Amino acid sequence: MTSLLTRFISEARGLLEQASADLLALEKAPDDQEVLNSLFRCMHTLKGSSGVVEGLDPLTRAVHAGEDLLDDCRGGKLSFSANLADPLFDTVDLVGEWLDALGDTGALPDDAGRVGAALANTLRGLRADSPEAAAADTPAPVASADHCDWLRLVDHGVRRDMYIALSAPDAALIAFEYVPDPQCFFVGDDPLLTARTAPDLVWRGVEPAKPWDDDLAAFDPFACNLRMRGLGTASLDAYDRHFAYVINDVRLLPVARAELVTLDGPVAGAKVFEPFSEDARGLVKAADWDGLRAAVATMRSVAGGTDGFEGQALDWLDLVLNSGPIDPALVNRLVMAIATGRDEGGETGPAPMHPSTDTPAGPPGEPRPAPALDPTTAAAADILMAQLEALAMPMPPDQRLAQLPSRKETLVRVLTALDNMEAVEKLTAIVHQARREEDAVLLAEVARDMLMDLGVLEPDAETASVAPANVPSGGAPTARKPAEAPSTADRRGRSTKPKLREIKVDQERIDSLMDLAGELVVAKNALPFLARRADVEFGVRDLAREIKGQHQTLNRIVEDLQGAVMQVRMVPVSAVFGAFPRLVRDYARKLDKKIRLVVEGEDTEADKNVIEDLSDPLIHLIRNSIDHGLEPADERVAAGKSEEGTIELRAYQEEDRVVIEVNDDGRGIDADKLKAKAIEKGVITAEAAADLSETDALNLIFAPGFSTAEKVSDLSGRGVGMDVVRVALERAGGTIKVSSTLGQGTRVRLSLPLAMAISRVMMTTLADQPFGIPMDYVVETVRIRRSDIHHIKDREATVLRGRVVPLRRLRSLLGIETVIDVWDSGGVLEEAVLVVNDGSGHTGLVVDDFEENVEVILKPMEGIMARFGHYSGTALLGDGRVLLVLNLREILKWP
Amino acid sequence: MALDLKKTVANLSGTVTVQEAEPLLEWLQATPKGKLNLADCEHLHAAVLQVILRTGATIQKEPTDPDLTTWLKSAGAL
């Protein structure tokens, strides 16, 4: 998995959490503009960052639709309400699921295109300017796309064949309807080719999407006005993939067996069917399929021919009874069709996925008059039968639970039609209970009770009529939506146990963990003091030894702990490097140079803060290389180099430091030119320049206000030069070195501590108070004889190994009362001198005495102390004393 | 040549691309009694199909490609 994707996943999870929280808050306070803005930003950011990652188009589209919707809310075109919250929650859940899939497989699920497009359509339908929203107050139909309403167009023969084919256990039939965007020709699409090449088609058709304009002159051949449809036997996923690029314009629907059965033609209504239909209804009720088969055969021989409504119904009955598992609901539907002369088509169709929206008009089971003895009761009985069968079907509990609302809806309608309001209440209560217990048995009982009330079902017959119903009613809910996303309730239920392979932790928490580990170090460091006291003051040597032993153990554990905490904060430099290929590309284009960026060692890790501090200086250095270092192509060719310049970015670890090199094979830095420029700018005097070695001359680029670019471009040369880079690095405890060979290139080497948390300091004492000096500055400690100190005007200096070293007395620098503290070493007076290098040369600091080196957790000065720039921070010592750590760079600037 | 416009017959052969839509439309408008010969046609771009459907042009010879024929038939062009 690419690091980009990994980062996206973790970022997106954070955004989703925020979005969920915002949505919940908005549900409580829909007018809270601030929360709305935050939610909008979440979606917006999600859209933006998903757009960068390859292969996430469905995600981007879905989130984009959510963003648009929220923008309408922000702009006041739409007020936030519950019917907006649900699809938005769905979006959040869906994206969450996709992130899981991305984490597992590195790709979105196969059906992501279709599921995402459906959701995006729903969201778009809710927008302020959408036709649906404008047309009606009712919530936009969510389930508009789950019924294939054009199957009657398909040739009868094809439908019969497919019905037989679908009797096989894992056969599938997919219907597609493709209405291309009118502008699609302009992006090079050939929708007909796309439709023709869909796999395994058994039927296809094309027609104008809208009636043609009467005026032939107004006809635009390049505005696509076609609707293509097809039936195919490949898997839903296969069609998903086939139509992936136009999935927004395609409706894919799995077709259930029962849907293939349609009846048309003139109704004969002949008397001849009456005895048959009466018989047949009895046989259906008794599930006597053999008997029915015989009756159908007889009837077909009597009625003859297949023309007309009843004839077709008989043919279908024959087919349904003789191929594959028998679908009782479908049989019932056909028998009823013959009896009543009308086909109650989708009666056994699947329950709508979203019961909250308007239940589709026809199905399932709007009570309607039927030409039976007691029309309402008869219709109600049929419906109840179908429901009972459906409820008796074996299926996974979660699926059953998902269907409950629609089943309930149907029953409620039946009861309302029967004027049984008491039962409606009872039913509602039961459904609540059933929802909790994931059990539809109760609902089935209600249906059965009602059937008995109606006298349709005999108490002893109930098992007989329910038992064979293990044949799916209409093949429906399972077969019809094999790839449908789990219902909302289901999805929300599942997301309570998300996979947490990584945790995002507030940096503050890690910092406090770090502090605690640090304090543990300090506390541990108190043990040696204690041991010494036990030995020296109390004279118990054994105890002292034991304490030391314990200290060793504790020491090991604490060090491991500290290492572990540091490890948590480590991030790879790729976090910073990742942005550079783009940066280089953009600049190269802007300056019309050809540049190749080589990156090495992206896996090198360093503390998060260090990496963050690296970012700006590196950008600056790379810009410099592009702008000043690399020559234009023609100049390069003239110099015998390849046309393409190379910038090399290399990171590696060197002991406890991370080193980053920025190398280019450009023109290099001309030391003489640099000196001349420095003199011209008054950075250095001509005499001093003459004395500079080549290396020192190169360091001139770090002088403040130094820029050699002959022309100022918008990339670099804005007056903030390398001095800014140097200062930034030094603040982070790093160093920077430049080397260059004229005509061959420049190398800049940055070195930073791996982690800044622990600093090594040299302890010194002044007037019995400890002061810390960062070890990075310390060159050596020496004792110098008084007699070797020379006075030059009011300054002191000494000579160390043939080199003049100026001396500063730290006591006077810090304003501590100066006493002439002397060391008597066999009658020779000596001073303790700490030779330090602050980057501008060696200086000797005269102190009272040296103490040991310690590792401390340096804490910056806080409150009013923060103003004292001459301290870089404080640290707590093992014996409880506070150590002030000096900022030598500041102190040595003092006169 | 995917589109060969004669005096009364337009021969469409091979794969007829989107570029052919406009010339064909103009020819059909100028030649109301013009007939189409699709015998050697393997594929029509959707835009060309639209032209045929909209103008209701008479197809003299249907494609030998059975799949294309099915599509045309479904649209009532044959």
UniProtKB/TrEMBL annotation, chain A:
Listed Pro residues bias regions: 361-372
Transferase among keywords: yes
Record keywords, A-Z: Kinase, Phosphoprotein, Transferase, Two-component regulatory system
Top-rank taxon: Bacteria
Listed GO CC annotations: cytoplasm
Any Gene Ontology biological process: chemotaxis
An example Gene Ontology molecular-function term: phosphorelay sensor kinase activity
Enzyme class: transferase
Reaction equations catalysed: ATP + protein L-histidine = ADP + protein N-phospho-L-histidine
CDD domains tied to this protein: HATPase_CheA-like (cd16916), HPT (cd00088)
Biased composition range(s): Basic and acidic residues: 489-500
Domain Histidine kinase: 511-756
UniProt xrefs under InterPro entries: Bact_Chemotaxis_CheA, CheA-like_dim, CheA-like_homodim_sf, CheW-like_dom_sf, CheW-lke_dom, HATPase_C_sf, HATPase_dom, His_kinase_dom
Function according to Swiss-Prot or TrEMBL: Involved in the transmission of sensory signals from the chemoreceptors to the flagellar motors. CheA is autophosphorylated; it can transfer its phosphate group to either CheB or CheY.
Full protein name: Chemotaxis protein CheA
Species of provenance: Rhodospira trueperi
UniProtKB/TrEMBL annotation, chain B:
Lineage top rank: taxon: Bacteria
Phylogenetic classification of the source organism: Bacteria, Pseudomonadati, Pseudomonadota, Alphaproteobacteria, Rhodospirillales
Name recorded for this polypeptide: Uncharacterized protein
